[in-house]
Design a protein that fits this description.
Two copies of one chain form a homodimer. By secondary structure, chain A is of the alpha+beta class. In chain A, strands 1, 2, 3, 4, 5, 6, 7, 8 and 9 form a nine-stranded antiparallel sheet that branches. In chain A, strand 5 and strand 6 form a beta hairpin. Chain A starts with a helix and ends with a strand. The model of chain A has no long low-confidence stretch (mean pLDDT 97). At the A-B interface, strand 1, strand 2, helix 2 and strand 5 of A face strand 1, strand 2, helix 2 and strand 5 of B.
């Protein structure tokens, strides 16, 4: 079983290296949405880009929340996050540059109406198998616990 | 780009072989939940087991719906499903047996208050990369399209 400090550093490493993140959002009728999206970890935030009309954008705008997962399923990082949706033309150069550098792509460069979703973790949990369920919380109320 | 029939057979193969499934559910306040759970594919249903008090059980009971994903993120099967929650003691021997055979475990055998969640796909989509987004729907309204 990994100690808390190891789980924290492993989680940060995954955020810095994984190609994609699972993003779950919900409307206010109990309908969950879930999609894999390219991941950018920048300045303590997970940044993803989606079309403005997408369910993810609409749900995140309305609820201000999302739940994220990095896999695989036996080495997970689970994140509860506050969500903020920004039209790409309103995003500052730091956001645009970080996303482009990480993913190799700039939303809207091929046309379409894109938004960035800025996801600020409030709770992060990390576990591999059943024996790591205890002690899985490495961030709570936005503060690292180790 | 895989033809529809190939995507369907690949999806069924993943349902029959993958160890885990991502399960997203939601409450009626726009809060999404997402967890990886052991997967059993039986009689056209995805069967998972969770504690009765879990967020997944409560959300699925209230909404009757879930969204599922099989990974990895660049070879996904995405499923919209109707959800039915059954206390383990009310589950028939076919359900209990199929789940035990697939996962090697019987919910409640170590104590605790467990339920099965029976997830019947209504829509299934399968894609690997951007070029497979077109034609990604292989089941619609509960009927295979190929």
């Amino acid at each position: 079983m990994r100690p808390a400090a190891q789980r924290k550093s492993d989680a940060i490493e995954k955020l810095g290296k994984d190609q994609d993140v699972w993003v779950a959002t919900a409307d206010d009728h109990g309908i969950a949405h879930l999609v894999p999206l390219s991941l950018c970890w920048h300045d303590g935030m997970v940044i993803v880009a989606v079309e403005a009309r997408s369910r993810t954008a609409r749900n995140a705008s309305a609820s201000g929340q999302a739940r994220l997962a990095l896999g695989p399923t036996r080495d997970v990082v689970m994140i509860n996050a506050k969500a903020s949706v920004i039209p790409r033309q309103d995003a500052g150069p730091a956001i645009v540059g970080a996303y482009r550098e990480r993913t190799g792509w700039e939303p809207g460069s091929d046309g379409g109406d894109w938004v960035y979703v800025l996801l600020t973790p409030t709770r992060i949990q990390a576990w591999r198998d059943v024996d790591e369920i205890a002690g899985r919380t490495v961030m709570s109320d936005g503060a690292w616990l180790a």
